[in-house]
Amino acid sequence: MSDVDTHCPYCALQCGTRLSGGRADTVRVRPSDFPVNRGRLCQKGWTAPEVLSAVDRLTRPLVRGPDGRLVEASWDTALDVVADGLREIRARHGPDAVAVFGGGGLTNEKAYLLGKFARLALGTSQIDYNGRFCMSSAAAAGTAAFGVDRGLPFPVTDLRGARTVLLAGANIAETMPPLMQHLEQARLIVVDPRRSATARRAALHLQPAPGTDLALALGLVHIAIVEGLVDQSYVDERCHGFAAAARRAMAWWPERVEGTTGVPASAQRQAVRMLAESRDSYILTGRGVEQHSKGADTVSGFINLALALGLPGRTGSGYGCLTGQGNGQGGREHGQKADQLPGYRSITDPAARAHVASVWGVAPEDLPGPGRGAYELLDALGTPQGPRALLVFGSNPAVSAPRAAHVTERLAALDLLVVADFVPSETAAMAHVVLPVTQWAEEEGTMTNLEGRVLRRRQALSPPPGVRGDLRVLRDLAVRLGEPASRYPSAPREVFDELRAASRGGKADYSGISYQRLDAGEALHWPCPDTRHPGTPRLFLDRFAHPDGKARFWEVDHREAAEETSPEFPLHATTGRVLAHYQSGAQTRRVAELVEAVGAPFVEVHPDTAARSGLLDGGRALITSARGAMTAQVRLDATMRLDTVFVPFHFPGDGRANLVTNPALDPRSGMPEFKVCAVRIAPTQE
Ligand code: SF4
């Protein structure tokens, strides 16, 4: 096999890779000189080929038999079981009794066809995806401020010119290590309750109590106003709403912020002065400030700071969100979100409905309306008003959803659970039907990375016999449900061409991007409205995407976390990722080197907190919240806050961090509060 240029299967940085070898057990990966990674990969990227030959790789459809066991079946049998089940449930309970749960790792083509399949073949409004748990707060805040949300509205390489970068809730030294090379010249200000690997490299680490980042953001705006650091001409010319946002911020003077967050007033002042000292500053947010019941408001708070300092919409400075999942950006643009149609269009917008309906060859009234957001959808499964059947593509909600024991119960209450995956995830293990599908190096398609750059995923080897592509699976199911085959192309290029037409005129306009242009090496960032358009690597330079071209300050005020500590649950628990693992760990827990690096759940605890709780370094701990309990090995860490413990969320079974997390939802985004809940911790033998 000749070398194949493609991209890492994991995070939104989408590092460029070159694959050689040609067989699942011999394929080798090397980093390519792609701009975001420039010859580097992280540990996950280097070991990604191992998942291709995972010993428990799914290669045959599985159907649950009368004795309750999953047994191998032919594709025809499995698809017939699924289609018969869907038809029966729909006939008995209506189209919304069938639901679909997608993923932010699916290619653009899969995300697009999944949305179309749900709305046309199933006729259901009940579709959402795991990106609701990842990106939704930043998306809501970005859209409110700028008129459109694109993770980074500038290329990653622009960060090389930064003098100061504030990272709010982003631990990129572990989650996206190759990105760090672009920040080597910058002074980092890191906002994180935990002294993360990134915080350890920072010039300034602000360590707020979990759930208080919004108070901190308000306080930073306050300081900018009081110290005369607001870029008033920028605010007057390019923004609306400063006065109302400023009024809120003026109530958050540094000492009050210190009392609420624990961040010293002097450090707050230092942070704002560093950001305002020169033009070339950036503010970047990540899941740490976004995964809260006020996550969208918190991001708005940091965007307000960026606008006050005049950073967005200029070359050499800006605001951006560090998208998490591999196709977290494209995954939210093409119609697998409950409230959106392809092109990043609102599903309630009559013009958007008319356009997409015309591309799909149906009437606008044939398209269902908005459905439930991800957690609400999972919470409703198997209830009298909720879906009775669920199709899961590219997601593992039994591990990754908040209040995981409850979500597992809801999955178990379904009449029909169908999971399409390439490894037997914890959700697949519960399914009535499991469909074995291709993974990254076995398929063609496109992904859109955190810069809004559309990338080609290329096939480097044949899938194992018995495995099918998701696009073909969707078409075969659609045909069994009475749809014309011609409505569901299964060649990725054809699907992409239809996606381009569906996105035309939308906020995320892909209509000028083609496989041909991408294969010729063009760097194309959306929007790209025609085939001669060079794409848009930098957004907002002339105008923001609101009709009047101006950005909006969003009036926000601090509020407490949905669950505060109490005598029964005296500590905050916060969750996050580690270098060796990705998302629910379904892929990375199958890689020996990564398991050797971190093979089991752990909890980071301050030694004094541990001593008070009777915990020993290396011992077992039971972490209990109002929703359930998890077990983990104790790691003492003197840099932890005394009031906080940290648990990674990549592990299954009793080690699921989401057994304790709080599903309190952000009213603007539907994001659950993964990043703070109240717990107690005690030694255990389990
Ligand atoms: Fe893959 Fe992300 Fe690591 Fe790059 S940083 S190698 S894209 S996991």
TrEMBL record:
GO terms for biological process: respiratory electron transport chain. It comes from the Bacteria. Residues 1-56 form the 4Fe-4S Mo/W bis-MGD-type domain. This is Assimilatory nitrate reductase catalytic subunit. The keyword Metal-binding applies. PROSITE patterns: 4FE4S_MOW_BIS_MGD. InterPro entries: Asp_de-COase-like_dom_sf (IPR009010), MoPterin_dinucl-bd_dom (IPR006657), Mopterin_OxRdtase (IPR006656), Mopterin_OxRdtase_4Fe-4S_dom (IPR006963), Prok_molybdopt-oxidoreductase (IPR050123). Keywords: 4Fe-4S, Iron, Iron-sulfur, Metal-binding. The lineage of its organism: Bacteria, Bacillati, Actinomycetota, Actinomycetes, Pseudonocardiales. One of its GO terms (molecular function) is NADH dehydrogenase activity. One of its GO terms (cellular component) is membrane.
